[in-house]
Write a structure and sequence with these properties.
The complex is a heterodimer of chains A (217) and B (369). Chain A is mainly α and 217 residues long. Chain A is 82% helix and 0% strand. Chain A has helices spanning 2-39, 49-64, 67-73, 75-82, 88-112, 116-124, 129-163, 171-180, 185-213. Chain A is elongated, with a radius of gyration of 20 Å. Chain B is an alpha/beta fold and 369 residues long. Chain B folds into two domains: 2-266, Rossmann fold; 273-366, Alpha-Beta Plaits (2-Layer Sandwich), CATH 3.30.70.260. Mean pLDDT of chain B is 88; it is low at 1-17. Classes of the chains: A mainly alpha (217), B alpha/beta (369). Chain A binds chain B through residues 115, 117-118, 120-129, 131, 135-136, 139-140, 142, 213, 215-217, and chain B through 74, 76, 96-97, 100-104, 106-108, 110, 112, 114-119, 127-128, 130-132, 159-161, 175-176, 178-179, 185.
Chain lengths: 217, 369
């Protein structure tokens, strides 16, 4: 039994590491990508229609590849970035690569929902384009962006189970190796309970934060 | 604020008479849009000037081009051809920073207020200053001043979602005035407010115009707004200015069909009970002559009742109508019933009321049931 507790704690810690690093990377790059998508379209602040179409296509390509395939296809790239193809850090690379376009599309929706009248108002008061970005688009879309990040985190916890396939460990890996392959129901149930708690906590905290940031009501 | 002076004080020399100083000047201004492969002419050869210190109204039906015209003043829209001078300066060809600087001298308020939901009232009002890099202490001070000006001292740290429409527009006005602009552009600023709130916002705009000497340019589709506060008005129809002049003149003697159509909402039609009893010939000896008198305010004199009765006879009755004072001139319409023989005294009546004889129309004869 102490063996199992040890395994369980290690696995939980691995999952938290993988997901938090990947989420951080996805949040930063995904948001940047979302801003690029909403500001470079025809007639937008920094109109570059060809760039917009190009970036949009690349995002779609990455969104279409199933995660388990991406995991394998990205092996050389993973080695290039973190120097290894096994372990927690190796799993964080494909998780991030999948998370960036996923979060970018969700954040894009929130940014597009910002009333054009607000942009006009800030331009009329003497705001430059960067003011529109920092004073209007981001703060007004923030509650939606936080909700989107919550969705991304939950999806990532799910994907991290597959990352076990590259020897990253984590709760999902324990569930597959011990629970599924060795028919150990006790391990399976406890791992699932752990994942349920994790997802619930993330969702509850995310919702509370988004509600706090939303001053529209 | 020094920057604002740079932009807008390049005005004509002091030798020019004050009331003739043109602050905004449209020169042969046209604007086309491409909509669905079709070219739409939003503005055509607009040419007029807005004087410093006045409240200038631009009215027209939706799609007449008034919103485009207003936005060309602060370059939220670009003209296709022609020029706009603001304080004698053409704002075309400025780079982003210069244009931002120039816009600080031109405040703007909106129909839907356009307040940032993520910022409190004070943060919304202070935003133009923050963007311009003004020191925080100075912003706080100015925000307090502005809150007092618009009467929202108690709402400093409230989020806009908690405010009524009228309060939101007051925040919008305070925000627009943050940089002490010379011009305030109002884009249908009262169109989503109830009549009572509209009155209070218009009163505030008038105070700002008088006390701070801010030139107000407003667009609206409501003639009542123009009548309430404007000094001069331009009527826009299909992208052209079809009529322009002092409000009392345009209201009193509209020349264009578009103006008359817009004014129809304010004109009192004949009540049905009178309408039903009008005949073209006197039916009996008791039939009364029905007169429609339009007071255009041109003479600047108020209609006197004594001479009116003297001209038409003691049996004269006032059936319908109303008189309003627009810019201090009595304007309106009176429907009078009088003895049929007064028909010959219409010239006398016109003289007494100081209106052209053409303003008196014989509607017919009123039968008694």
């Amino acid at each position: 039994m102490p063996d199992f507790v040890d395994l369980y704690l290690t696995a939980t810690w691995q999952t938290l590491q993988m997901v938090s690093v990947s989420a951080l990377v996805s949040a930063l790059f995904g948001l940047a990508l979302a801003l690029l998508l909403v500001t470079t379209g025809p007639g937008d602040l920094y109109a570059r229609p060809w760039l917009n179409r190009g970036v949009g296509s690349v995002v779609n390509v990455f969104r279409s590849v199933p995660f388990i395939i991406l995991l394998v296809v990205l092996l050389p790239f993973t080695r290039l970035v973190v120097g290894t193809t096994i372990g927690v850090w190796a799993a964080a690379v494909p998780l991030s690569v999948a998370g960036i376009p996923f979060f970018a599309r969700i954040a894009e929706v929130s940014l597009r929902e910002v009333d054009r009248g607000l942009i006009e108002a800030v331009q009329a008061m003497g705001g430059r384009r960067r003011d529109v970005l920092w004073q209007v688009l981001l703060p007004e879309a923030l509650p939606g962006i936080v909700s989107g990040l919550t969705i991304t985190l939950v999806a990532m916890i799910g994907s991290s189970a597959m990352a076990g396939a590259v020897g990253a460990g984590g709760l999902g890996d324990v569930a597959i190796r011990y629970g599924y392959q060795r028919f150990d129901t006790q391990v399976m149930v406890s791992v699932l309970l752990g994942l349920i708690v994790l997802v619930s906590v993330v969702q509850t905290v995310g919702d509370a934060l988004a509600r706090r940031l939303n001053h529209r009501q | 604020m020094n920057a604002r002076a740079d932009i807008l004080l390049s005005a004509p020399p002091a030798a020019a008479p004050r009331e003739a100083e043109v602050l905004v000047e449209f020169q042969q201004l046209s604007r086309q849009f491409q909509a669905g492969g079709r070219s739409v002419q939003a503005l055509q050869e607009v040419e007029f000037g807005i004087q410093r210190g006045e409240i200038f109204g631009i009215i027209g039906r939706s799609g007449a081009g008034k919103s485009t015209l207003l936005r060309i003043i602060n370059r939220l829209e670009q003209p296709s051809s022609g020029r706009v001078l603001v304080g004698g300066r053409d704002l075309s060809g400025l780079n982003e920073a210069q244009l931002a600087q120039a816009r600080r001298g031109i405040g703007m308020i909106f129909q839907h207020f356009n307040l940032l939901s993520s910022r409190t009232v004070a943060q919304n009002i202070g935003l133009p200053l923050k963007i311009a890099g003004v020191a925080t202490v100075e912003i706080e001070q100015r925000v307090d001043e502005l809150l007092r000006l618009v009467g929202l001292e108690g709402k400093r740290d409230v989020y806009p979602a908690r405010l009524s429409g009228g309060q939101k527009q007051r925040v919008g006005i305070a925000r627009a005035l943050a940089h002490r602009p010379d011009i305030l552009l109002c884009d249908e600023a009262t169109s989503s407010l109830d009549p009572e709130t509209t009155q209070s916002i218009l009163a505030l705009l008038r105070d700002i115009n008088r006390q701070l000497n801010v030139t107000v340019v407003l667009i609206t589709h409501e003639m009542a707004v123009i009548r309430e506060i404007c000094d001069r008005v331009a009527v826009l129809e299909a992208g052209r200015v079809v009529e322009l002049g002092p409000v009392w003149q345009v209201f009193g003697a509209p020349q264009a069909d578009a103006t008359r159509a817009l004014l129809a909402s304010l004109v009192h039609e004949l009540p049905p009970d009178v309408q039903g009893r009008i005949a073209s010939e006197p039916a009996t000896a008791q039939s009364e002559l029905l007169l429609d008198v339009r007071l255009d305010g041109v003479s600047g004199q108020d209609p006197a009742l004594g001479p009116l009765v003297a001209a038409l006879g003691p049996a004269t009755r006032l059936l319908h109508g109303g008189v309003e004072r627009i810019q201090g001139r009595a304007q309106g319409r009176l429907v009078l019933a009088c003895a049929p023989q007064s028909r010959n005294r219409l010239g006398d009546l016109a003289r007494q009321l100081a209106v052209p004889v053409g303003n008196i129309r014989i509607l017919g004869y009123l039968d008694h049931a």
